[in-house]
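Colleagues,

Please find the record for the three-part complex below.
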Amino acid sequence: MTRRAVVTGIGVVAPGGVGREAFWDLLTAGRTATRRITLFDPTEFRSQIAAEADFDAVASGLTPQQIRRMDRAGQFAVVSTREAVLDSGLDFGAIAPEQVAVSIGSAVGCTMGLEQEYAVLSDGGKKWVIDHEYGVPQLYGYMVPSTLAVEVAWEVGAEGPVALISTGCTSGLDAIAHGSALIEEGSAEVVLAGATDAPLSPITAACFDAIKATSPNNDDAEHASRPFDRARDGFVLGEGSAVLVLEEREAARRRGAHIYAEVAGCASRSNAFHMTGLKPDGREMAEAIRVALDRAQLDPTGVGYINAHGSGTRQNDRHETEAFKRSLGDHARRIPVSSIKSMIGHSLGAIGSIEVAACALALDRQVVPPTANLRTPDPECDLDYVPITAREHAMDAVLSVGSGFGGFQTAAVLTRSR
Amino acid sequence: MANFELDDLVRLLASCAGVEEEFDLNNDVLDTEFVDLGYDSLALLEVAGQVSREYGVPMPDNAPEYMLTPRAAIDFINELFAATTAKAV
Amino acid sequence: MSSPVITGIGVIAPTGVGVDEHWQAVLAGKLGIARISRFDAAGYPVQLAGEVTGVSVKELLPRRLVPQIDRWTQLAVLAGEYALADAKLNPAELPEYEMAVVTSSSSGGTEFGQNEMTRLYRNGPSHVGAYQSIAWFYAATTGQLSIKHGMRGPCGVLACEQAGGLDALGQVRRLLRREARLVISGGTDASLCPYGVVAQLPIGYLSTSDDPEQAYLPFDADAAGYVPGEGGAIFTVETAESARERGAPNYGAILGYAAGFDPPPGSERPPVLRRTIERAIADAGLLPSDVDVVFADAMGVPDKDLAESQAISAVFGPGAVPVTAPKTLTGRLYGGGAPLDVATALLALRDGIIPHTAGPTELAPGIDIDLVLGQPRPAPLRTALVLARGYGGFTSALVLGAGDRTA
């Protein structure tokens, strides 16, 4: 019998919703969590908006040494892992450690820690040959993003394959795909799969300012992230994490686990066109979707809902609308499509896993989250994007897609457990 | 404020985005589109940013749209310089 | 299904530019470690590094590409060209969706990032350039290689510090089994800027010696850390069928792979290296006695060396298999380290010569491996095992089988 990966636990740290149920609550209420940046002074920046997680490290149960040692992205990942593990009901003490694997995605690793320490070491940028005496013990841990996967592995004592996947904005989807591949091929029985990013730091804000990718709608932060809307003007930077417990399906069934969804098929392609630019035809994303559906043994008409990348840039939303039409034909017009970045912003590598978590919850609860702020339709984006209000919707399969700098295009199909 | 000229553009392109050997950025290519000269939107954003920083003249977000060719870029930048000087007066 | 094969290798390392220069330096025990020249490190406790010298990388790349990529990506793009030429591959002739790129990255565009942060802190946000968004992040090399060569298949990036190079090849094997016929893989690293060096100081693994010949002595009684280095190797890996169809010879095949992770600090459970080695060999369908040489991780940190020696001896028997670590000539190359070891292992298999480990003279107490010292050791080689451990507990092992390429 073919091995399949199913989702039995979900943990989330998201803007406006720290914790899985708070997250789902925000999504279904259609509330937005974008606001004027508070994590640093945004005055001199072009885009002064972000979706920030109101995260209390102490209240979240992290110890003083964990808080000192871990970058904010690491803290998110560990807290999400704990919630996912609890949610799954799995007793990790009863599983052979070598059967437990970890697959974590992150686009920009420990950026906040790296930047904050650099400010000190260089004394505000004054010195190129920085003062090594100010190096803190956790500094190398900030320099290498792999530490984020290390912390998750330590959390559950995983001794199976551990990987940090860093494919830009598709990291979160690719990490889930990698995790399910590990289960399918028998390299692990349980995988902590997810992603984390905490990029709300001057260097990241500045680099997106430089290419005009983020929304400069600073006077209306609450409504600045408006995917598919005619007035959309860029994405809103976010932060967060989602970690899922993936188990082999039959084992999950045998132990009576609550199964949110099955990871039925994943695929990725690259546009090999430009590091940031997208052609309007969406052909490589369409190909990723086609292959993912094929692996899921699902006809395009079987897709009940699409969770879009929907970053809110002019080019992205047009690109993926085309990709949906290309891959699903007319069916793309008959199903709901929404972008939760409208509510929680774009957390770069993390968002792919957060969106998969949303898809698993959507399937489990048969409700589709809306696209907030969608008031003025764009003729070029003419699908049903579920404007403003969440919708109860019967569905057996959900498609989640992502697109990122470097040309990465990934698609994942989740189904109700069959 | 002095006129922005082809030499300045070439200098900025070279330092910001590199200059390909086979194209001599001279008067012959004044009306050749940047995309055909191998300069993409990022390169133009970088040049626009550098103009801002060096000359203290803010460039609008959509500057690349007005900089489709070397001539268009030079004219556009000179217009901005003139507007800035006019405001200062 | 036959094992995937490596048909082309591009090396840019402190030992040389190109496979031949690197291999000749390795066989001669020619040290690529010297005083850091990239910046004035006089005030630092670490004085030495393995730098890529003797080539002006920027001069060899398209001028318009250079400003938008960190040195780490520059090295990979160049090595990628060498690999493709070595394999006599023209990507334009292959189906676009069946080609991919999977690289190993450790700290991304360290120097580019330091430069942009300097501009930010000295002059303000508007001084951060348009290329920061594409040059520093860990996926930059894969993205640029994919664009350069039109590879539209499933591209990826593994960031598992020094172990990532083997994990990338593990992923490559997965892709070649399922959906691709060619994957460009391997990795490079270039963190020899002040921030890249200083970031490593607090963990206490870097050697503070100022004598290049004595600084990096893995398994030696005087082992006192490793030396940082830059560079790496890029490969063209193909399905056996694809290589056959092209009539392309190969350096060797990926026969087996396994990855594990050490238990958390404070745990009483043992490190996983032994089990990982056993699983990789079993994955290859082989026995320990089939392995002819081990390219060790060789950190040069005493307790890590002992743990590695114990794992190797537990699997093979004390002194029962030749072990070597040519990385003493280059330093530790992080994302490029395991790929360079794989390249050297393939060359060893090709020529039937085990390169020696330059530097160590007297094994530390408890180290009972047959470390090849002094000079290269000719031997009939069919199978090589490459080991890599990454910061935090990553542990990977790769089994390579000799190919049919003679030069």
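The helical segments of chain B are 6-17, 34-37, 41-55, 70-88.

Comments are welcome before we finalize the supplementary table.
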